[in-house]
Specification:
InterPro entries: DUF397. This is DUF397 domain-containing protein. The protein has 69 residues and is of the alpha+beta class. It is 19% helix and 28% strand.
Length: 69
């Protein structure tokens, strides 16, 4: 297991990093950070961590359209 998460950016990002989030799987959680605030070591910036099962349920609902307003 890596000591810090390896983040990835959405394939829908335009590459500039503006208005994006980065996500990484790490220790049975998914960690999410703002791509505009990611300098420094892990822990130096705000990060949201959720259990992998909760992230999977969220992305499944998002892809299905159940969260559309």
């Amino acid at each position: 297991m890596t000591p810090t998460p390896v983040f990835r950016r959405s394939s829908y990002s335009n590459g500039s990093g503006a208005n994006c989030v980065d996500v990484a799987s790490w220790h049975a959680t998914v960690v999410v950070r703002d791509s505009k605030d990611c300098a420094g070591d892990f822990g130096d910036y705000p990060t949201l961590a959720v259990p992998t099962t909760a992230w999977t349920a969220f992305t499944t609902d998002l892809k299905s359209g159940r969260l559309d307003a």
